Amino acid sequence: MGRMFGTNGVRGVINQDMNIQLAMQMGKAVGTVLHGIVAVATDTRMSADMLRAAVSAGLMSVGCDVVFLGAIPTPALQYYVKTNDAVACGIMITASHNPPEFNGIKVVAADGTEASKEQEAAIEDKYDEIIPEVPWNMVGGYRHVPGADDAYVDAVVSKLDREAIRAAGLTVVLDCANGAAFHTSPLLLRKLGVRAVTINGNPQGEFPGHPSEPTADNLTDLCRMVVDVHADLGIAHDGDADRCVFVDGNGNYIPGDKTLAILAKGIVMANGGGEVVTPVATSSVIDDVVGSVGGKVVRTAVGSPVVARKMMDDGGVFGGEENGGLIFPDHQYCRDGAMAIGRMLECIVRNGPLNFQTAALPTYYTEKRKMECPDDLKDAVLKFLESHTTIKNKDRTDGLKLITNDFWLLARPSGTEPIFRIYVESKDRDKAVKTADRYQKMVESFISSA
């Protein structure tokens, strides 16, 4: 079968590469490797019930009991698995921010974190085998267990300064992307005494409001609505609500690395220092801000499971990626959209409006380029770039990062598609553009002549 798990679970187009045969065999493989009671949940996609039924059938056929938690955010499933000792693992049926024709299967380990690479490899190996089923009298059972969503919200609320948030009398506009946050995030805001105007709050798997990736282009309605209702903040989730991005009170979309820096500053100050973990692709604004309050930044390869495991190993106080995936270790070691809302509300109450906080950040310009590149050429491109640069400061944590005094460049092959990416960041916009142009031409000419 080869490698099935990408950077975030197994994904594919429904009834093409992601079908019920695959889902049932995945259920059997997961149930055989991580045997015991398995918690299953879905996001709001049209194919959710079909895949849930197939995965559950596979699990029960190898003797696992299934508890179905309903359509809830990925971090709500992760919290349930972490806090219920009887549960061996979890399976989330989601394709996160992918278009509606996609769906996927994400495995959660017993501690609530995403399955490790070793566990994924064991599941893939098992998937390729003929997996024996149990005798008739050992087949697993199935029951629906409601309430995991409410328990998750209560756990988030318990970690926040509810009185301060309630007293501030804030108004927010919440965009649930018609996804898994449709119940949890409005409930969270109600419990915090925040007036919430909700858009795209119906669990509709076609994502009719806008595509479920929370980018600036997809959130024009949210930006406009924040201004129209004089809100203090705009909040947007992706499809499975493990990510969260923000819009300031003037209707400006705030890039994820700025959110990361603002929240990191507050958390490092509250802890009297500490380590913030983020991938090599995140803006240097995080280094400037965290360094200014006595913390340190540690870089990892791209991918939230990598960040979470590094935080667990090092005792990091905060971590995350620039796409809105933020990890709060006092709650759980996974991306958590609801806790991101709570911590941002606290941050505004303590430190003032979001537009003032972002205006105080140092300015960097980032150029992102992507080129089509066959999978079998990706390593050759990296070797070519490394041998054709005079820059001495190289970081090979993930792809190739070249660091100079006035810019950095990251050359990185995609882990999920035949694409090669180049990121350049500089305080000088012109330098960022010209450097990205130069390296893009180098890569394209190498690929075309290979």
Question: What features would you describe in this structure?
Answer:
By secondary structure, the chain is of the alpha/beta class. It folds into three domains: 10-146, Alpha-D-Glucose-1,6-Bisphosphate, Chain A, domain 3 (3-Layer(aba) Sandwich); 151-359, Alpha-D-Glucose-1,6-Bisphosphate, Chain A, domain 3, CATH 3.40.120; 365-449, Alpha-D-phosphohexomutase, C-terminal domain (TATA-Binding Protein). 38% of the residues lie in helices and 23% in strands. The chain is built from 15 helices and 21 strands. The chain has helices spanning 20-33, 48-61, 74-83, 117-127, 148-158, 162-168, 184-191, 220-228, 256-271, 285-292, 304-314, 337-351, 354-359, 378-387, 429-449; strands at residues 10-13, 37-42, 66-71, 87-93, 102-108, 142-144, 171-175, 195-199, 233-237, 244-248, 253-254, 274-279, 295-300, 318-320, 326-328, 332-335, 365-372, 394-395, 400-403, 408-413, 419-426. The strands form four sheets. It has a six-stranded mixed beta sheet with strand order 1-5-4-2-3-6, sandwiched between helices. Strands 8-7-9-10-11 form a five-stranded mixed beta sheet, sandwiched between helices. Strands 13-12-14-15-16 form a five-stranded mixed beta sheet, with helices on both faces. α10 (285-292) links the parallel β12 and β13. α1 crosses α2 (48-61), α1 (20-33) crosses α4 (117-127) and α3 (74-83) packs across α5 (148-158). The radius of gyration is 22 Å and the shape is globular. The two termini are 28 Å apart. The model has no long low-confidence stretch (mean pLDDT 96).
